[in-house]
């Protein structure tokens, strides 16, 4: 069960298991990440303000990067996280989210995320269909507020997930999942509530 994995993550970092379900407000994030200097939040509106047209990525109707370049930017952000996470780091939980493709009826994937004061993102991905839990790790770019993460166990590191750090303070948000440079999909992240019995996560409302 995914909870068991991030419960162990919590013990390593000296937090109780239910710490990771708590949401973070934008105000809390702004004072938590050192050197962020965030004023107004930037919402990454994938499929709206930010969209792909063939091999070009547009923001506000203006071309900003090729699809391959945009993927590489996300990969560079995710890979800039330090190799080893120190147990003495303090972590602010971002919550637990159900992951699904847009318009999907159900989800068997969860991701639990937290952020430390250096802007490192870490947590756990869990697939209930395969009963597989895997660590994830990434960073938030302090200038652009763009957050990206990938698997931290050395496998499938070409798969990058991204959204804005402000997006992660919301109960539901768009995100992008890059399956290498050749394929990108728009996904949905829906915040889950802390389970009452410590056994199963509650379904999104």
Written description of the protein model:
- The protein is an alpha+beta fold.
- The chain has one domain.
- The protein is 15% helix and 38% strand.
- The strands form two sheets. The protein has an eight-stranded antiparallel beta barrel with strand order 4-5-6-7-8-9-10-11. A three-stranded antiparallel sheet has the order 1-2-3.
- A hairpin with a 7-residue loop joins strand 8 and strand 9.
- The protein is globular and about 45 Å long.
- The two termini are 21 Å apart.
- The mean pLDDT is 88.
Compose a concise summary of this entry.
With 205 residues, this protein is an alpha+beta fold. Helix content is 15%, strand content 38%. It has helices at 2-12, 26-32, 67-79, and strands at residues 50-53, 56-59, 62-66, 91-101, 109-116, 120-127, 132-140, 146-151, 159-164, 172-179, 184-191.
Quaternary status? single chain
- Could you tell me how far the N terminus lies from the C terminus, measured between alpha carbons in angstroms? 21 Å
How is the biggest beta sheet arranged? 8 strands, antiparallel, barrel
Count of helices? Answer: 3
List keywords for this structure.
alpha+beta; 205 residues; eight-stranded antiparallel β-barrel; three-stranded antiparallel sheet; globular; 15% helix; 11 strands; 3 helices
């Amino acid at each position: 069960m995914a909870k068991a994995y991030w419960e162990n993550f919590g013990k390593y970092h000296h937090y109780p298991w239910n710490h990771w379900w708590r949401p973070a407000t934008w105000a809390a994030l702004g004072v938590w990440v050192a050197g962020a200097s965030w004023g107004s939040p930037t919402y990454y509106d994938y499929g709206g303000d930010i969209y792909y047209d063939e091999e070009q990525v547009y923001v506000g109707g203006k071309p900003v990067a090729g699809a391959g370049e945009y993927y590489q930017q996300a990969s560079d952000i995710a890979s800039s996280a330090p190799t080893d996470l120190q147990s003495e780091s303090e972590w602010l939980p971002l919550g637990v989210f159900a992951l699904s493709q847009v318009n999907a009826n159900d989800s068997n994937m969860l991701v639990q995320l937290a952020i430390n004061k250096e802007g490192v993102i870490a947590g756990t991905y869990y697939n209930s269909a395969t009963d597989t839990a895997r660590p994830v790790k990434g960073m938030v770019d302090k200038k652009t507020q763009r957050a990206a993460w990938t698997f931290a166990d050395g496998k499938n590191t070409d798969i990058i997930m991204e959204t804005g750090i402000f997006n992660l303070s919301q109960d539901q948000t768009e995100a992008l999942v890059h399956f290498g440079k050749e394929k990108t999909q728009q996904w949905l992240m829906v915040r889950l509530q802390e389970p009452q019995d410590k056994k199963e996560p509650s379904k999104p409302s």
